[in-house]
Amino acid sequence: MASSLQTQHETQSGVYTFSSRPRAVPNRPKYRQDAPLLNEEQSSYGNIMYDRRVVRGNTYAQHILPITSQPDPVEFLRQQEARKKALSRKRLKEQFGPKTPEPLEGRMNIDVQTEMYLEELSDHIEDVSVECQTDMFLDKPATPLFIPAKTGRDAATQIEEGELFDFDVEVQPVLQVLVGKTIEQALLEVLEEEELANLRAQQQVFKEIRDAELVEVQRLEERERRLRVEKENRIKQQKAVLEKEKETADKIAARAFAQQYLSDLLPSVYSNLKDCGYFYDPVQRDIETGFLPWLMEEVTSTLEQRYVARTVLDMLIQDVTNQRLEAFQMKE
């Protein structure tokens, strides 16, 4: 029992230390139950996410264990006896208290809240986020210039005229440098101007040569274009002549074939047409269509007149015969 207690003490140097026996954190039950006792052995899976010593999120509200002195053994024994009595009362209550009857076949008992107000039960840990707004950082003021405090006594040294340097003598090297640098700079500028003039002259010559070359290139390109156009025109003309010759040769061949084909066709066609009566003699046709029908009509009319005359003659002869017969009979 003593080995499972947490120890908190301060060393002689005043540094706080903490040590405890490692143990697994118990699982959180689904429904609220009585808090487990510290000395009760419980099965857990050792998840450090439920350990209060592990810091999660911000550290503003971090729980800092207070620095306390060694606990009183008498108080510790009294708390241990109270825990034992509470555990015994809980066991007796569970053993002899009213129990829920066993469920019927096919049913099962479930935990139901019997409080006046229902409470949402979930495994989610309630947490609250708290924020605070701080003032913006002000610019740090400029650090004043450090001026050391004056110490000691002031001292001065008197320098007479001509003791440090002679201006006329000391100024000669400076003048030589200035004049030499000025002359050198002037010479450099003159040389630069001459070089620029030469460069401009070379650029002008190069520009004239380039313009002449461009003109020559344009002339050659124009000549090449004219030759190409002339060549294309000649090719088109030659193609047109060849097509014309080919068309003429095709027409001549077609005409010769047609003449050769019609040489035997025309006589046969004419003979067939003549046999069918499409070709005739106009005199013969006139005689056949004009004279012969008229002649036949005249002959027919003449024959009809002769027939009528003969009929009339026969009737006269019959009448005369009948009269003579009647006259002869009257005489008898």
TrEMBL record:
A Gene Ontology term for the protein's cellular component: cilium
Principal subcellular localisation of the protein: cytoplasm
UniProt biased composition (Polar residues): 1-20
Record-annotated membrane-spanning stretches: none
InterPro entries: Radial_spoke_3
Coiled coil location: 210-255
Subcellular location: Cytoplasm, Cytoskeleton, Flagellum axoneme
Keyword annotations from UniProtKB, A to Z: Cell projection, Cilium, Coiled coil, Cytoplasm, Cytoskeleton, Flagellum, Phosphoprotein
Pfam families, A to Z: Radial_spoke_3
Region of interest called Disordered, as start-end residue ranges on this chain: 1-39
PANTHER family cross-referenced by the UniProt entry: FLAGELLAR RADIAL SPOKE PROTEIN 3 (PTHR21648), RADIAL SPOKE HEAD PROTEIN 3 HOMOLOG (PTHR21648:SF0)
Family classification: Belongs to the flagellar radial spoke RSP3 family.
Protein name according to UniProt: Radial spoke head 3
Organism: Sinocyclocheilus anshuiensis
